[in-house]
């Protein structure tokens, strides 16, 4: 008959064996190779919810034009991410992975599901990260903000709103 003490000892011993095995595996395999990151479905869903919260009234009012502008901006974020160093792409992949994972999304963003999140919920999440006491979350907000705005203002359609005439003809 197994008593509680024996059971706990076996559990601790099993955990130590698993941890040692994991350490040996990591030592033998080495760090994973870095690869270019392409936005997956989860990242695109997150961005589709975040883009309207960041761009707000800069987006068309509604309908197909609004959806097309959001989709172009998400594609623009993909283009911007592709130009970043692989280490930075990995960090962005980790960020979108966390925001896509249901428990982490609920804990970090307070959003039930990105598809169901209201603009107010997403704005509250972004504002919370913008002013958070942890620099890591402030940095994550800055990355999301800069990627979305960079992708938006890289589109010639957005230039008129800020009075930018476009690149000098002689340089293009």
From TrEMBL:
The lineage of its organism: Bacteria, Pseudomonadati, Pseudomonadota, Betaproteobacteria, Burkholderiales. InterPro entries: TAT_signal. PROSITE patterns: TAT. This is Twin-arginine translocation signal domain-containing protein. It comes from the Bacteria.
